[in-house]
Amino acid sequence: MTDLPEPAWSISEPDLPSIFAKHAAPLDALAAGKVPALVLRQAFPQSACQRLVAKLITDELLFDPHQPVPAKFAEQAVPEGYFREGREGDGEKVWQTATSGAKKRIDIGSSLGYRGSNREAFFAHADQTRRLFRTLFAPNEDPVELLYATLTALSRNKRAVTAYEADGRTYGPAIIRAHYGGYEYAPHFDSVRLREKRVDYAVHEFDHQFAGVLVLQNTQLDDRTAQCVLHRCLWEPDIDPHLRKGTFHQYAAEHDIDHVQVVLEPGDLYFFNTRAIHEVPGVAGDLPRIVVATFIGYSADRDEIFVWS
Ligand SMILES: O=C(O)CCC(=O)C(=O)O
Ligand SMILES: [Fe+2]
Description:
alpha+beta, Jelly Rolls, eight-stranded mixed sheet, binds 2-oxoglutaric acid, binds fe (ii) ion
């Protein structure tokens, strides 16, 4: 008997009808690792992306890469590869000392990954973020609303809501991230359950974690742009040593692990399973790569899909 070839592992795109034509339940396909990513091309107009980036610079929430870096951004920048397990230590301190040089990441929003070690401070910060986000977007040009609406549609019968705790405290709705100077994400996975072990947060209760990311601006150097690579490899504990030692590419080659590069333009929105090992190699172009990013908690048996950052 001959083995059947494995079905191709390729992204599903470019719009909802095409995605539904391929997958009756796209989010379940994502959860099972059957499809690397769901991609909605030009979900948000490029002109709206440009208007939003310009406003963020005018409002001094981001800096213009052609000008000297204002001091407040030098202090705020987030180090590459940062994350923190559970309740250890003081996240803020680490941020302020660890980053120097051109590779800067500026976050507009509240990251559970950074701030979650201090529950009180995290939810207070998230309150401020929700207030700020209400002022950022022009009417009918709200990329966060678009992301939630798309996720609700992809689920067919669930509702995407900003994550909340039983006592009513609410997370940040999304985060805007600007990556300057070739900031990169080395191969990693994201999981509040399996990696960060945030047992004291409601988002920990979901079976699956996805990311939903809308590209507002890309960076370009010669003919290269920064694009996410997804590996056909859902995290298991035996992968950890390779992630830690930086030998994942070697491991993937030795084990014939497939991968796809998800090539996106400003205005494209994509969803992927964050348990799949993924990376965004840095490209030190003139402009920063800027995205609206979310994490997503999904369980087939729950009516609500939780979104946070
Ligand atoms: O920026 C992206 O497209 C994905 C970044 C990522 O891997 C993350 O935020 O965990
Ligand atoms: Fe990630």
